[in-house]
Amino acid sequence: MNIHELVELNNQKRKLLTEENRKYYEKMLVYIRLSYRISDLETEETLSELLDHLLDAQEEGKNAEEVFGKNPKKYADEIIGELPKMVTKERTSLIGMGILFFLAVSMILSGIIALVSHYYFTEAGLMKEFYLGSALLKTAISIPVAFFLLYSIIFYLRWSCFKKINKIAEFFVFWFYGAFSVGLFVIIYLFIPSFGPKLEISVFIVIMSGVILFILGTLFKRKIEKGKR
Amino acid sequence: MSIRSQLLKGILEGCILAIIERKSVYGYELSVLLHNYGIEVSEGSIYPILLRLQKEKLIKGEVKKSQSGPNRKYYSLTDSGARALNEFQIHWLEMKVSVDQLLNKGDEN
Asked: Any chain A CB within 8 A of the CB of B70?
């Protein structure tokens, strides 16, 4: 079975759990899935094994706490500790894919913004100006920043997994975090001075290149998933 | 941790290997068999051990259809698993004899 089939089967089987067992199991599931250092396929296989066990135990009238112990985080950490680590090749492909998607989305977005401003404010032309030096520097800074922001979210989600957190407070935290992230990129883009040779590229070419990068990213993603079967 | 569970921690791996040698089992089945042999552990604790034994290539897991219907991951012993079990048995006997002697000596004095 591949990862998608395993995940789908898990979604179906989880419905058979009692409310109490489902809550316990799902916290563990999210926590284990978010630990990005371990190999995906083995993780899903183990998660489905644990679910099967819990379903069997449930038939015998036992609950999740009796099966996995009173401390789900500790148990999940034990499982994570024994799961095979993601191999470096797998990790490099994932990072490569992340970079492709990031570049694709930022090119498409900047193209669309230029297009919209062309139609609303006539002074903006359909040619986009690039300064090679600053464009490269912006990219070089943005990519690690994007990874850091993503890493922080994963870190927060893992940390909050087994904690009771006020939903409203969480909403505001995420809202501020979103605003902070956008602000960070705006600062990077506004405050890096223009330098290097000037290039003029049509907005449509920018968008097209973005789309091509996006397709490349998707193909890359398929290849990674295929390799895991 | 109680003395009992500390004692068990080290020998549980050997017990699991011994059960898997007799017949290939899936996780839930294994926990039931351990229980039937009087080896009381929390059921979940077998999974980290099963993962470790797989990593060390002492056992291998294979997804097969079970009698009750759904697919299960059945574990069986590898060649090096059989050797590891053999070693465990030797160490266990040695240790058992010495510990018995030690404990019984205490009685005699």
From this structure: yes
